[in-house]
Amino acid sequence: MSATLVPDVGRTVVRANYHPAILIGGSVVVAALFTAAPWILPVAWVSVLNNFFLLLIMATMWNLLAGYAGMVSIGQQGFIGLGSYALLYLALKGMSPFAAIPLAALIAGAIAVPVTFVLFRLRGGYFSVATWVVADSAMLVILSIAYLGGGTGRPLPGLANLSPTAYNHDSYLATWLTALVVSVGTYLLLRSRLGLVLASMRDSETAARSSGAKVTSTRRWIFVIAATGCGAAGAVLAISQPFVQPGNAFNINWLAEMLFATIIGGIGTVEGPIIGTIVYFVLYQSLQGLGAWYLIIFGALAVAVALWQPGGVWGLVRDKTRFELLPVGYRVRDK
Amino acid sequence: MTWTNVIVQGVLFGGFYALFACGLSLLFGVMRIINLAHGDIAVVAGYTAVFLVPHLHVAEVWGFVVVVPIFALVGYVLQRTLLQAALDRSPLTTLLVTFGLSVLIENLLLEIYTANGQSVNIGSLIGNSWQVNSVIYVSWFQLVVLIVAVAVLGVLQVYLSKTSTGRLIRAVSDDREAAQICGANYRHIFGIAAAIAVATVALAGISYGILTELTPTTGGSQVLLYAFEAVVIGGIGSLWGTLIGGILLGVAQQIGAHYNPAYQVLAGHLLFLAILALRPQGLFGKKEALA
Lengths: 335, 291
Hints:
The structure holds two protein chains of two kinds. Chain A has helices at residues 2-5, 20-40, 43-68, 76-92, 97-119, 124-143, 164-191, 193-203, 205-210, 215-240, 246-249, 252-265, 272-286, 293-308, 312-321; strands spanning 11-14, 154-155, 243-244, 331-334. In chain A, the strands form two sheets. In chain A, strands 1-4 form a two-stranded antiparallel ribbon. In chain A, strands 2-3 form a two-stranded antiparallel sheet. Chain A is mainly alpha-helical. Helices cover 72% and strands 4% of the residues of chain A. Chain A contains 15 helices and four strands. Chain B is mostly helical. Chain B has a two-stranded antiparallel ribbon with strand order 1-2. The longest helix of chain B has 30 residues, at 2-31.
């Protein structure tokens, strides 16, 4: 491809400013370590990692929505809740909870399709509040269904045959594999043709439109993908509890955490949600036992970053070093 | 007769929703932003009435006379500092910053005052009602709030169309650059609009605290959502539409509650979603206001 794009003038076109084998090799090593985590780390750490990957999935999805497609959803907790309840429903019908994860995610995504046709009539801030109305409506509908436990919730069936150790391992592996699929999928998506459209929308919607990018249909795709991803997060959340309750599944704090993590890490970058999720867990672990203060401090930090360092931590690092850990674009380099 | 009562009670609630909504509508009209902390500011005003006013030597029913001017000032300062800084960045930043503010307020209230409900106590006045017949009771207090809401909207309408500051607000909202060229200090004008918005929602928050209980999460899940639904149902950009929107929302909620108390809020959401699907510009809005 490089040969057709650039005439041979002693330059070459590459993705990364380091050897691609490092990216692939590094990813394989990291993936192997995280897969082996339940066997090499203490139980408490595995539980922290489980929550880490849960938030990573959510932040990655929210970054796609707000960072790339310009949709500040404040209703993603609705799709988390729907994913949790879809899994509960499938498990009550006799499916193995683990096998039901992809189906539960797809159900959340399918619900998002008609929702976009109503929500996309509003823009900007009005769109944002409308997403919350949809999330609240979803919760109120679930609350009225006695079969799904109403307001008190229901334990997730289908896990009784597992020993506590096996349950801990499997629950962690389910979360980790979901996070892996979501992260790799998002990365490949951003490197694809659709990713190019997204990057152009992020930088200037008007310019993207006038260059022929199908902005509205791209938005619709991203909204449905993000709903599917958040549905998957809700499904693995249900397994790791393992109790499904509206107050937890539809909690607005999920939204606050994914939003703050994305902003602090760097909105509109691939690496941002990862960095932000790490910052979140460092804060969370060091402020344990102080109630809601972690969220207050995390929120104040996010507001400060949004105002004075809108590129977030990763934006700062990238501007200073010109280094990209997970490159999605191309760069021209001397041979 | 039961149905008449359902409608009457819905209209009475509509007064609250219109009062919640007019500040949100004004700020959007002037600055094209949604303040996601709008409802939380109302709750803080209610908490101020609960915890500060008893220390002052005024009857609690007059607490709003003290609290509302304070919040007008809060609104002006908030606009000139945090909101203006966000607005200078981008519309996206204002959403992120006001959402952050909302989470901060809710969790600070939770940490300081716990999740318990708080009510503004005005003594026996709240219980007074006017019995129309054997089924219909009209609470005096709710009737007063409805009248206040109509009065606030009316005063706002006159203020925006007749006074020089009001005309400046409309000029800045129509075309900021042109108004600036004519010498308008748009930051100051934004501050005044925010002061009005925050003062009205503070009044709404105190009234809601008198009628029912406020908790740290009332601001987001109730005040903001109802205000927003009233604005969209009535039509973005129309102040009187907001009043009708609030009333229709109140009636829809009461009809839902009549079938099952659990359906009260959901019925309002469904009316909102139906309006959005069938008439996205709202009942009295113009199509171009949507963009």
